[in-house]
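Troubleshooting: if your tokenizer reports a length mismatch, compare your output against this known-good record of 239 residues.
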Amino acid sequence: MNQKQSDPDETLAPTLSTGEGKSDIKEVCRQPDATEQASGQSVRRFEHLVHAAKAFIFTVILKDGQPTCTIRYPGVLEVTGYAEEEYAAQPLLWLNMIHPEDRDVVLGQIAQLLRAETPLPIKHRFMHKDGSIRWARNTSVPVFDSEGRMVAYDGLVVDISEAEFADVKQEREIADLTAALAMVKRLQNLLPICCSCKKIRDDKGYWQEIEAYMAGHYPAITFTHGLCQDCAKKLYGLI
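Known-good structure output:
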């Protein structure tokens, strides 16, 4: 990242990486062995589904209530553009990718999880490796052992950029149409009138005497005629 970012609380660092992070308990961080996984066919189907959904899943391992490392699953490269090795080499890469205006939302979600709470899903922006801004929906839930102790939390990150940018485009188009409509209404309230003869130009571009124009557009109005003092003096020399 080109911008210099402030470091978060060090206790959160492992939770912000989708790489392996750093841990003294490699046994806790190891990938589940064959006896703990579903069949190979089911795993492949699962990976295909996550890839199709433009998503990835991660698990943050806790020890004594503190994060120790993050296990990443297939899909992270497709969603973020960064390979597993890059996350492993830069534990804070995921945090640095998050849009500065959205970091408090992400850190707030993590804080809730570390309190063994289940937060609502959040939406936030992040910077893809290709430099583009993407939108993600992040859903995370705590994981408890048989004794009710929180031992990890699982997260699902889905790229929702297409839908979010479509909504933004629609909102922009609605705003433009609303502004155009307001302009039309303002123009409708303008009445073009000749500064010399005082004829009024109608919607078809024809110039009409004011009486004819008003009778055609406002038939309820009835005109009566007289002379103002200025015209009476000009025409007849009357005071």
